[in-house]
Amino acid sequence: MTAIEPNVVPFASPAAAGGDPYVTTPVAYDAILLASFGGPEGQEDVIPFLRNVTRGRGIPDERLEEVAHHYRHFGGVSPINGQNRVLKDALEKALVARGIDLPVYWGNRNWGPYLEDVLPEASANGHTTLLAFATSAYSSFSSCRQYREDFARVLTDTGLGETVTIDKIRPFYDHPGFVEAFEAGVRESVQGYLDQGFAPTEIQVLFSTHSIPTADAERSGARDIEWGEGGAYAAQHLAVSEWTMGQVRAAIPGAADVPWELVYQSRSGPASQPWLEPDVCDVIAGLPARGRKAVIVVPVGFMSDHMEVLWDLDTEAAEAAEEAGLAFVRTPTPGVRAAFVEGIVDLIEERLQGRPNAERPHVTDLPGAFDVCRPGCCENVRAGFKPAAAGIAP
Predict the structure, then answer these.
(1) pLDDT score recorded for residue 268
(2) Which helix (H) or strand (E) holds 330?
(3) 64, 122, 262, 273: least surrounded by Cβ within 10 Å?
(4) 3-state SS class at 2
(5) CA 148, CA 169: separation in Å to the nearest integer?
(6) What is the per-residue pLDDT for 67?
(7) Does residue 24 carry a pLDDT above 60?
(8) Domains and CATH numbers, the chain
(9) Is residue 88 classed exposed, middle or buried when 0-12, 13-18 and 19+ CB atoms within 10 A define those classes?
């Protein structure tokens, strides 16, 4: 099967190839693919890594060096690769404990170990029916479809497209194992501020996620669902944030008056291109005028403490809070918390067992995320159509 045939699911297992949004047929996967973004692991890696991230855009190295400062600040090392090594080990142990005998391969889009190396390795080891878990929880081009396009590209370029299949685990933004860290972090932080004597209305909770171009946001998620402004990407973040605050308010007397807001960070496009707003640092700067004295920043869009968390939040947002005279707390990401690792195993079992959507755990009222993406889902109109695995080709 080629990746450009219309109305089919390219590179899919037989159970997913029919295109049903939820796959309810058990699949005997023989390996798990932990797919991630990748990051540099030394100063000499920074510019080559950024070239990979911006491939096809013609950005000169001089410009890349201007945006490399946050990696340089940390010795040229992004924490994401180290975190994925720990996650891979934890996931392997959790699978064994659950009685699931599947190897875990780890491959990145933009730095080693590359998908281009890992998929041939898996095939050579006899593993050809793969289930991919991407380290991004929400629906958008960069957090879902770009992974699917890379799966298709690598399978085509390596000649493995006729023998290897890749299905992808659904966006898991509202799985209990993922959101547990945010609820626990906000609850602990709100209680801590109240214990210090802050009034509820003096505390501001900011749920922060990566900004994306508004055009990408509007095209995120299935096209036949009315998501509202910002598409599925904004709707999913808002739903998780609202659920989190609902849990905190139910658990803490007086927390009902603690205000919250969804904000964005890490914008990287040209000034002429609209991106999702407001910016986290801009909002923090304006909090004193709204009577706030303490801020809680929740990295709701992030799975682990990678560079956007360490630099944009722990450094820049913390500095903005200090300049504004605000107390500042940044809550933990899911990382390798036991609830999250067990949640990943739950997601794997969904596909191994063909569990119906009605039996899948979720904390929001949004439609359950699809196993097989719909035609045109999260497409990047600027880059044009590219074949993608785990979704119906338009």
Answers:
(1) 86
(2) strand 327-330
(3) 273
(4) coil
(5) 11
(6) 85
(7) yes
(8) 14-172+337-359 (3.40.50.1400), 176-330 (3.40.50.1400)
(9) middle
